Amino acid sequence: MDKREYLEKWSHLHRGVDPESSVWVRGYLSAMYRVVTVAERSRLSPNAITVLGGIVANGAIVWAASAKNLSALSLLMLLSLFVDALDGAVAVATDRATTFGAVLDSVFDRINELTLVAALILVTDGQATIAAIAGLSVTFILEYARTKAASLPIGAPERVTIWERPTRTLVSMGIVIVGMVAAAGLLPYVAVSSECAMAVATWAWPSFALVGLMQMMKHLKPYLLTN
To answer: Quick count: other Cβ atoms within 10 Å of Cβ 163?
Structure first.
């Protein structure tokens, strides 16, 4: 499968999203195309990858957060993103995309987000609880708006916001990296514990989520007002 065909199939599965619509989408799909050759040879079904990969990756993230192993935690977050994207790559590359698989993937997306939030709470000894729950709440509202719009006969195409799965993972990794920098005493002009630094940095989660929600509602507004 060449790259053009891969991008066309991906766009069709995502309700016509332009693969060139943003630098995030373009970079994300370019990275995932590199695993298409491997995905085409995989004997595992996309659903098996979703379930097995999700369980292993999320379990490892919770372990690393509980153990306060920041280096492992940041790497496992990145691995979780890769595993989450791999099932979709297999589905596209092998023409095994199904409605059940799409729902299963969406369920595990929500589980992944719960895991990331739980990890941030655990690794900060609860100091990031309010920020993490606020971010999770706005994220769930964003995803509800997306899903509800897709179920309505309004003809609204998919909208890629600033707050998609890759961004959520990268922000979570950034929060952990802030903790690593604080633990090394490298934060300029301030000396705080890694837990405190990460708790403050966690407010990036609800901030980005709110921007994403506003982008989604602005996109949906003209379709909703004309129906």
So the answer is: 25
Joined together, the tokens standing for residue 35 give 């695993």
Average pLDDT, the chain: 87
The span from the CA of 112 to the CA of 118, in Å, is 10
Enter the pTM of the model.
0.84
Residue 63 and residue 109: Cα distance in Å, rounded? 19
Amino acid making up residue 87: D
Helix, strand, or coil (residue 126): coil
Torsions phi, psi for 155 (to 5 deg): 70, 20
Residue 93, C-beta contacts closer than 8 angstroms, at least 6 positions apart: 1, 6, 36, 39, 40
Q: What's the whole-number mean pLDDT along residues 126-143? A: 96
Give the mean pLDDT of 178-189. 86
User: Which residue has 């379930």 as its token pair?
Assistant: 51
Extract the tokens encoding 15.
């309700």
Taking residues 160-175, report their average pLDDT.
90
| Domains along the sequence of the chain with CATH | 3-225 (1.20.120.1760)
Q: Residue 148: what residue type?
A: K
Angle, nearest 10°, between helix axes 23-33 and 70-93?
80
Residue with tokens 């706005």: 138
